[in-house]
Give the backbone structure.
Amino acid sequence: MTAQPLGGRELAARIRARVTELAGARRAGGRAPRLVIVTATDDEASAWYVRSLASAAGKVGIDCDVADLGPLATAGDITARLTALSQDDAVDGVMLQTPLPAGLALAEVSGAIDPAKDVDGANPLSLGRLAVGRPAYAPATAAAVVALLDEYAVDLAGARAVVVGRSAVVGKPLAHLLLDRDATVTVCHSRTRDLAAVTSTADVLVAAVGRTHLITPEHVRAGAVVVDVGTNPTPDGGLAGDVDPAVASVASALTPVPGGVGPVTTALLLQNVVD
Amino acid sequence: MTAQPLGGRELAARIRARVTELAGARRAGGRAPRLVIVTATDDEASAWYVRSLASAAGKVGIDCDVADLGPLATAGDITARLTALSQDDAVDGVMLQTPLPAGLALAEVSGAIDPAKDVDGANPLSLGRLAVGRPAYAPATAAAVVALLDEYAVDLAGARAVVVGRSAVVGKPLAHLLLDRDATVTVCHSRTRDLAAVTSTADVLVAAVGRTHLITPEHVRAGAVVVDVGTNPTPDGGLAGDVDPAVASVASALTPVPGGVGPVTTALLLQNVVD
């Protein structure tokens, strides 16, 4: 068997086309939609991601500013800026880029982002609302996983879904999104005993841990659908997923890295800005 | 095998003793701690529970008022009262009792409870904070399950925990509490296919669905620890759990109903008022 590749580029292009249209209408109506990305790091991978996001925003007609507070910014500096941007009527979306200065957790400061502008679902209130079925922006990566599964008509109701990774930005919100779609959901993590025994129960397996090729064919039930959220840098400057490509010999479908979840994530983030 | 009964009355008594001491100190210092329970229903079981909670509060030295808005209260009425109580310096804890008037979900109005007074963890922000590891009150029932497991030294790290029920007040917050304790957590619900196949993977099985004796010996792995959150009224005026008592022949330990999770829930709720 060779797994069907669940590419995300076409879906992302369709989402971006819709966003371009909406942003154009807003621009014609007086003001282009505006996203502000707050950064507080000198991490190079982060800077690269922010540049690519700003470029993607520009292409769909969204103005994008980067507010760089520098790696010495305090929690007070960051929350003050997030609060000001939340109150600024000329700003539609606010995103706080990680990593943050040492010792500072995203959830400690992201509460200062107005949920109505929290386009990457970073505020704990957004996660809580998501969990109880109230309107809220989900973290774009988690939303992208479900959007990709929908794109390929993967049936989630009653399916056994296993999420590897319990982060506040992917694993936990994704668990709620999958539960909301009537999947039976298991969350695994670094302390899970016999990971392969758990993951091989999955009809739908999502890897979101950030460890290159952690998921091997032994972790996957024959015919499972596998979604790879990992974007681990390789020595040659490329990207590797959390899923060993050999899994394609066992799974019925597998998202590529790059070109799977990533482009959909970016497109959904931009969609949240114009929504 | 006959399962060890994991009774909650002793633990509850110890918690109440501590609360009595703290409430007495507060009373001596000028003002007794005060809990206000907001109700908007003429449901009899709810009224019984509120009376028993008020009585329990009185016994530990907590003043408890019931604000009965009646079954015709609107969302606006309820949020206005919750907001006023949140701002009232003479009130330490605010609880909104369910059921609410027809068509109104708890999460639609519970956002009006100040998280610092949200002693039953009803505000979606409390759930979101819980999920990301920020300080927050957990719903007392979910916290009681973990407290009982701790009382009997059940090891959660690396254990496979299965929660049956995905409610915002028990199943979902409990999943986060168990994840936080390094369990591998699965959430099942009414749409789960082959429930017994999933539940029988559990080292720790928690039933929180509100269906009398749904969990039978066929659902339980030999030696599993089983926690029964169900409190279903029986025709003769008693209480029945979600777990068939015959499970005691398979499980290594089982919480009784009544006398298991219930008393610990009440004690933790009162503890949250004085904390």
